[in-house]
Write a structure and sequence with these properties.
This protein is of the alpha/beta class. Helices cover 38% and strands 24% of the residues. It binds adenosine-5'-triphosphate. Adenosine-5'-triphosphate (ATP) binds next to helix 1.
Length: 237
């Protein structure tokens, strides 16, 4: 199967009520690795992810995948900062994307049980998903996003409000997914997490890419004074 990547944004702008939230953005993301989007509050991290995924349509410019949009959409997943679940059992939530992809129920349930085991949810399969704890809910959201082995996973603050142990588990799943070939594009406020996970960094400021590059040189010596100040923990606005 052809990979949906690279993703190319060309002069992409997202506007709401005459206000530019993001852009213009020009970038190309290749097929492998973890790109972490960082920047101050309100700099546009969520909006950039939503725009790339097609949850919000660009008002100018373009967002192009290597395959037609309808095909690209089926090969992507998105994990929201506040995970959402169907008011059904954990197993029903897990198999939902597979059923949408036409996988027969017995096979979908087998895959659902297997991924639940990897994500520590085996004991919860019959439980109603909305009654899960925050950490379990985020694990479920991630497992459900990865069950179709998407080419691309967008994750918006996937560990916000989680304790250290759960964060470590979620990070391990994210790294494993990237190692298995899922391209990860995630936003985080947590600079420790950005340093642990990123192969590549996008530093946003006022809805524009202020700096973008390989993670190690970025963290060791950012090119712009704004990124340096942000990494020091100064207020950048
Ligand atoms: N639907 C909307 N309508 C109007 N303005 C919006 C909308 N969504 C976001 N914004 C504004 O766009 C800007 C970017 O918001 P966004 O949530 O993308 O930033 P962020 O970097 O993810 O912020 P945070 O770190 O606080 O989560 C903010 O000024 C926000 O108030």
């Amino acid at each position: 199967m052809v990979n949906v990547l690279p993703l190319t944004l060309t002069g992409a702008v997202l506007t709401r009520r005459d206000k530019v939230l993001v852009g213009p953005v020009d970038l190309t993301l290749g097929a492998r690795g973890i790109t972490v989007v960082i920047g101050p509050n309100g700099s546009g991290k969520t909006s950039l992810l939503r725009m790339m995924h097609g949850l919000q349509r660009v008002t100018q410019g373009s967002v192009d995948w290597a395959v037609p949009d309808a095909q690209a959409r089926r090969r992507q997943a998105y994990v929201f900062q506040q995970p959402i679940a169907l008011r059904r059992s954990v197993l029903a939530n897990l198999i939902y994307p597979l059923r949408l992809h036409g996988v027969p129920r017995p096979q979908a349930e087998a895959e659902g049980r297997a991924i639940a085991a990897r994500f520590g949810l085996s004991g919860k399969l019959a439980q109603s998903a909305p009654s899960l704890s925050g950490g379990e809910m985020q694990s479920l959201a991630l497992a459900r996003a990865l069950i179709t082995r998407p080419d691309v996973l967008f994750a918006d603050e996937p560990c916000a409000a989680l304790d250290g142990q759960t964060t470590r588990r979620i990070e391990a799943h994210l790294t494993a997914a990237a190692g298995a070939g899922t391209r990860l594009i995630m936003a985080t406020h947590d600079m420790g997490q950005a340093r642990r996970l990123a192969d590549q960094v996008i530093f946003l400021l006022h809805g524009r890419i202020h700096e973008m590059g390989d993670a190690r040189p970025f963290f060791n010596g950012p090119a712009t004074p704004e990124a340096a100040a942000f990494l020091r923990g100064d207020i950048v606005d």
